[in-house]
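Example record

The entry below shows one chain as it appears in the dataset: sequence first, then structure tokens.
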Amino acid sequence: MPRIKSPLVLVSVVGFFLFSSTISLLLFMEKTYSHAIETKVSYTNIIVAADQSKTNSDRLHGSKFLSYKIVKDLFFTNRYGPYVGGCEEDYRYTVPSLKQSGIFDFHTLVDTNMNILHVGDSVSLQTAHMFQEASMPQDRNVIRYSYRDFEATSIVRTSDGGRIAGMRVNGIIQENGRDWKKEDCAPNSGGGWRSSDVFEIRRLNHHWYCVNPDTNRRKVMKGVCKIDGSIEAQQGEFLFPNATSFHSMNEKQKGFDVVVLQLAPGWVVNGFRPDDWNVIKQRLNESVAFVFDYLEPETIVIQNIHLNNNIESSALPNVVDANKFISKYIAQFNNDASNDRQRIVMMDLYTFSIEMLIENAMSEEVGLLPVKDGKDIQLQLQNASDYEALFDASLGVEPLVRNTFQCQNSQSFCTKRPHVCSYEPNTCKRRSTITEDGMHFCKNAAGRINAAQACLIRCRIDSTIGANLKRLRECEWKCNRFFMSLKPIDWEGKEAVDFSMKWNITDRLGVKNETLEMNSKKAITNAVL
């Protein structure tokens, strides 16, 4: 299908597609890199709606906002991460229970003018790519490639003037990882990173232009930024400077509003000893302090440690203990903070991965978990009133985690059959659509992951919640227990849902008498807490 270049043709196409959902769906699925055209034609015609005006509750200190919408049958295309997390259905198998309406049949759209940076390993980069696509960006730059076509650092520009960036660091980011040799940074482990990448992102936060990307290897990759007439060179500036070149542009910079910090699983859980807690706390303290001081966000979203094949088959109790520690650390940090400008919230990728594992393992095709046992574990998860009870309930799947194959380095780095396989698990005849390789998420999870991240950021920037620690913690819990779970969305025949979660803030966290109102509307509306 040819690309649309003329505005007059675009208007005609929009009018035509309003009457033809089938044709609009075909256009949406077409892999074109003309972002402005795709945003205006494909998205708006599938959902047949316009963006809502930004309300005060969307804004942080009157200037920053983030709104999000979940949209039925709008599918994530994995545009920016073609080498990670595809999981095409033609080569995989989805167990029937995961095909139910409201579980994975939606995507999330995000409007924001915030500057958001994801830092972590390849899973963090994958969630950055997910959020980049959700923002329907106007332009995109790759600042550095790790090797071949695998990205290390990238950034998009949203239609509202925001920036969403991802920087791959294979290990927890700290000061002592600064400016390692490029060849020793990701994909190699150890936590090495380049300050020039951060410098480049900061400049792009301030002024958007196109760059020629850097690479850790000899092969030079081409830039992906598109010139559509909206980007013009200023006097004394280069339209295509070399990325991470400190003198190719003016040095005016703009910092970050949010940093999404991913904790790599091998950082803590393998070879764990009880006396490691002081070391773990010290390293986490150093990383958090460094992120706040160097990257200057007001909010850090910490992604906890999810189930993956880099975890030893016997290490699930260590994972549970580590995630409990992370949750308590965040609560203590927020309580001890000297001001309300720096806060941390947790994104519960762990429970999300456990719930998918249970559904997959209970299926007739996999049959590694008796249905009664699986339902009992699910009930315990559902009834949990705090993170400690939630993580303890997940230990019921420990025998499943020990069912492994394709192990490397003795019992380390083992693929878990109930996690990766979805048909004839002994031979793994067909792989699942919950994980691409035992580490990365499949793209059908993008809607929930994006919604959870947007929901958590909203908790922080909502002026009625963000400065109140009790309400912030409750809001975090609500976001995680709805989106980082398999709780189905009741579409009621609508194309989108406006969420309004209400609870009595004087009650205990997660009490059972909470009410969840889901008001479906014909037009897409801002999702709010």
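Notes for this example: The two ends are 41 Å apart (CA to CA). The longest helix spans residues 316-336.
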